[in-house]
Amino acid sequence: MSTITKDGVSSPAAAKASPAKPRRGLRGSPTFNFWLFTGPFLIGLAIFVYLPILWSLYLSFFEARFTVTPSEFIGLDNYVTMLTDEEFIRSLVTFTIFAVFIVPLTWGTSLGLALMVNRLRFMRAFFRSVFFLPTAVSYVAASLVWKMSIFSGVRFGMMNTFLSLFGIDNTAWLASPDPPWYWLVILTVRLWLQAGFYMILFIAALQNIPQELYEAASIDGAKRGWQTFWHITLPQLRATSTAVILLLLVAAYQAFDEFFNLLNKTTWGRPPLVELYYKALGDSQDYGAGSAGALILTVLICLVTLLQGKFLGFGRGEESK
Amino acid sequence: MSAFRNSNFDRRTALRAALGLAAAGGLAACGSNTGRSSSGGGAGLTQYFHAYGEAGTEQAIKRYAKAYKESNVTTQWITGSNFESKLFASLLTDKAPDCFEFHPQLQMIESGQVADLTDLIDPVKDDFNPADIQSHTVDGKIYGIRMIDDPQFFFYRPSLFEKAGVEVPQTLEELAEAAAKLTTDKVKGAYLGNTLHSMINPLIWSAGAQHLDEKNQIAYHTDAVVDGFKQLRKLFTSGDLLLDAPTDFWDPSALNQGLTAMQWCGMWAMPQMQEALGDDLGIFPFPKVGDAGKQSVYNGGWSMFVNAKGKNLEATKEYVKWLWIDQKEYQEDWALSYGFHIPPRTSIAASAEKLKSGLPAEGVKLFNEFGHFDNIGWTQASITALEDVLANSVRKGADPDKELTKADAKVNKELKKLFG
């Protein structure tokens, strides 16, 4: 069949419209397809998330030491125990201190890295990869490197070797809460591990800012640098920043690996999950109290997330801004 | 035309292949790590061991298991520092081990987790160290078979002591003074472990106290123990203690690498220390605390327990009896061929040539003269309560008397649950 047009340009032949075949049996059913694709996920969710949550709720009303099928109902005793437990309350304070430092620090570092990498004319991909690579390292492995190599308390620890050049004595970074050098170790390891991931989010957002805005600002006399950053870049990154802060906050609540590995069985520097681990899965094996603590923590996370959404506007539609 | 061009074939074949692989993987997993060929008969048994630091121990345990012809015995060699957590968690599931090593603790008996092994041990009861039997006995029933006794004491470098003009300390004050004199810009005076947790038991005994009295009531909260914690705090903040070492007290690296002049450790590490330091090695017990105190040695160790809720209870008891009662050759090999441990069977200990002279003999002497064993009523919750006291009062600077009072509440709660 000829496809020559009046202009002499070849155009693809129109596809022959095939008559729509009625789909046969279950494969044609949207309901079947829905369950086919979402069913396994929902079953997994039910078995590994909802059932354990319900079982935790059940356990929290029972005396459940060394058993997950308890028989002694004790009402709200486990909740009272956890809410009056000095160490559990202290762990919530620890989390708050941690979040207060790590959230803005990671936000600032990742934004700074993104701005820096985004401005590069050469080797942008290389530096993007270099900063992103730590994201692939496990928290446990990184914690052990930090503990045994960089911040080891002995004279051949990397940081102590460096400080000895200035005549500074060995520091036991993790042994004592006075002064609390352990925070330096924890913050640096987490910053190294996660700044690269958030940098990628910021780079994506930076690349979505229309250049016309900067051009218009330039015509209006805005100076490049701080002024443009403050009045154009930062407001344009608002949605990404809010999402990053939310993710960082949730990640801070989930802090476990580095605290568990760096601060072995100390009574200080325990975030809630480490405290609950010691209570429920550690030596005490008190699944009742642990479950009560887990549910208290869940409620707290929900409240904080809602409050954060309210103050920072996460999830609010564009029209309501 | 190749069948692979057919898209239907592709999808279905891929699905079938994936399912086949998954099934094969599952089957492969079932057959792994038994330590023996698949031709062995009888029930399949599983045993849990924590990872010992001495080279060759894992292979030894698997070799013993392989030599047992009545059952396939799979060994789970659990690395990491949280053996207890993994053991306790698995005991709640269908995948619980049939037998496992641990320390005698009443809560495991009370919750029906460990089986009564009296009938296995009774015929040879007189051949066991009586203190080992006592520490595993509740209401006349014996619940575990001791595999090894592990005395813990201070190891020191006599050459460094001589150079600093220091005598072996007899009291905790003298230990702190010695640590100060031994500290140089390269070497710290003493290493007590990163957490210092291993100091708790000997501190209590050296202060003339006990964890619990005969009526199973708190006996550790005394003025001497409070004073002991205060002295440890002074030592901790003196700058004469090695802190944050790459490995903990159970590993001899700190002493072997010249980071410290004396280190708290166990007899298991003696061969490694002798290899690294030769004759420049001595031992002494935990010094006394206060005038009424007495030097002490912690007789740690590991025992074999049988899961009372296991599916193969009788077969497991037979295996445990075979290995830890009948096979004296393996028991001796386990105690003496890797690290040094004291065999709990007196007949094996008496014939152990490696323990008859030199430093090992000195270790046995300290074990017999100053040794204290675990109290079966002193459970994990109580252990954790006193670990918190140490962390707060020694490492954090809180008042030990107040911290002990807080611990009393937790321990009493535990005792109430155990003894009513």
UniProtKB/TrEMBL annotation, chain A:
<keyword id="KW-1133">Transmembrane helix</keyword>
<feature type="transmembrane region" description="Helical">
    <location>
        <begin position="237"/>
        <end position="256"/>
    </location>
</feature>
<dbReference type="InterPro" id="IPR051393">
    <property type="entry name" value="ABC_transporter_permease"/>
</dbReference>
<keyword id="KW-0813">Transport</keyword>
<keyword id="KW-0472">Membrane</keyword>
<comment type="similarity">
    <text>Belongs to the binding-protein-dependent transport system permease family.</text>
</comment>
<dbReference type="InterPro" id="IPR035906">
    <property type="entry name" value="MetI-like_sf"/>
</dbReference>
<feature type="compositionally biased region" description="Low complexity">
    <location>
        <begin position="10"/>
        <end position="20"/>
    </location>
</feature>
<feature type="transmembrane region" description="Helical">
    <location>
        <begin position="88"/>
        <end position="113"/>
    </location>
</feature>
<feature type="transmembrane region" description="Helical">
    <location>
        <begin position="125"/>
        <end position="146"/>
    </location>
</feature>
<keyword id="KW-0812">Transmembrane</keyword>
<feature type="transmembrane region" description="Helical">
    <location>
        <begin position="32"/>
        <end position="55"/>
    </location>
</feature>
<feature type="region of interest" description="Disordered">
    <location>
        <begin position="1"/>
        <end position="24"/>
    </location>
</feature>
<feature type="domain" description="ABC transmembrane type-1">
    <location>
        <begin position="92"/>
        <end position="308"/>
    </location>
</feature>
<feature type="transmembrane region" description="Helical">
    <location>
        <begin position="287"/>
        <end position="307"/>
    </location>
</feature>
<protein>
    <submittedName>
        <fullName>Sugar ABC transporter permease</fullName>
    </submittedName>
</protein>
<dbReference type="InterPro" id="IPR000515">
    <property type="entry name" value="MetI-like"/>
</dbReference>
<keyword id="KW-1003">Cell membrane</keyword>
<feature type="transmembrane region" description="Helical">
    <location>
        <begin position="181"/>
        <end position="206"/>
    </location>
</feature>
<dbReference type="Pfam" id="PF00528">
    <property type="entry name" value="BPD_transp_1"/>
</dbReference>
TrEMBL record, chain B:
<dbReference type="InterPro" id="IPR050490">
    <property type="entry name" value="Bact_solute-bd_prot1"/>
</dbReference>
<dbReference type="Pfam" id="PF01547">
    <property type="entry name" value="SBP_bac_1"/>
</dbReference>
<protein>
    <submittedName>
        <fullName>Sugar ABC transporter substrate-binding protein</fullName>
    </submittedName>
</protein>
<dbReference type="InterPro" id="IPR006059">
    <property type="entry name" value="SBP"/>
</dbReference>
<feature type="signal peptide">
    <location>
        <begin position="1"/>
        <end position="28"/>
    </location>
</feature>
<keyword id="KW-0732">Signal</keyword>
<dbReference type="InterPro" id="IPR006311">
    <property type="entry name" value="TAT_signal"/>
</dbReference>
